[in-house]
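INTERNAL AUDIT FORM
Audit reference: QA-55
Scope: verify that the stored structure record matches its stored sequence.
Auditor: D.O.
Record contents follow.
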Amino acid sequence: MRRVLAALFLALCASAAVAHEVRPAFLELRETAPDTYSLLWKKPSGGEIEIFIAPVMPAECRLEGRQGLTPGAVIVRGSLHCPGGLGGKTIAIDGLRTTITDVLLRVQHADGRVDSALLKPANPSYTFGEARSVWQRAGAYLRLGVEHILFGFDHLAFVLGLMLIVRGPWRLVSTITAFTAAHSLTLGAATLGFLSVPAPPVEATIALSILFLGIEILRGRRGETSFALRNPWVVAFAFGLLHGLGFAGALAAVGLPRADIPLALFLFNVGVEIGQLAFVFVLLLLERSLRGLAVRWPGFAGTLPGYLVGTLGAYWTIQRTLVLLAGLR
């Protein structure tokens, strides 16, 4: 498997600059009086790539607001007055087409109706009509979880690294299960407000965990042993706790309404697991398909994945440490 996956690591290297930049933004409107809405806009900031997006309100509406900053986000609070209400009107997100992030939109009407949508780069606007059902809102959170893992290249690199230090199907199952259990714990704790850790040190430590796996892959290739190689599930669980905090940034940092947190937390986590299992399944299928081919791999191919994982980890560690240090100034 080590040689088969080398090409995939090269693809991850090409994507390194955008790793983990799929943090969603959040736009909430609450009707406080006829034709008047309180507004909350949260846009992620302080990451590896600054995201330049902003909501564009209907032309008939008048917005009054003020901007503030919190760790990891730009926040705008204000009041939106729309003659005749929002029915039939369109809200768009300027700049969303040039990103890989999403925007969670939620509108609470005075009569209890809720409009909810997930705006994406391919569809950055929403026209208000009838209220969306709980199933449509659930689908948005589920898709967000799937997309977060599939576009979170650092998390995928870690899962790939785990697969490369594990030998045997049952050890692979126990290792992936430990990783899942660990990141589910911290994802839930952080999203529900029981645990709060600043994002920059978490992201830097996640990168360090990938660098650690790169070293272990090379150690195993040389026939050596270590605690991590003998007990990969322990390593998966320990670092999974950190990765769960990274996942939580996609929900907690945007300030979801309290009423939506249980639904969003559960379905986002289910989406993460679906994406993770799909990724593992595709890798195993690819490895099985190529195993029977008469390919003569060069001698260095066996060590290439370890060096590539380590290089990715080192690159992200340096990059995120610089972001961390810049935020301390």
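Auditor finding: record pair retrieved intact. DSSP finds nine helices and nine strands in the chain.
Action required: none
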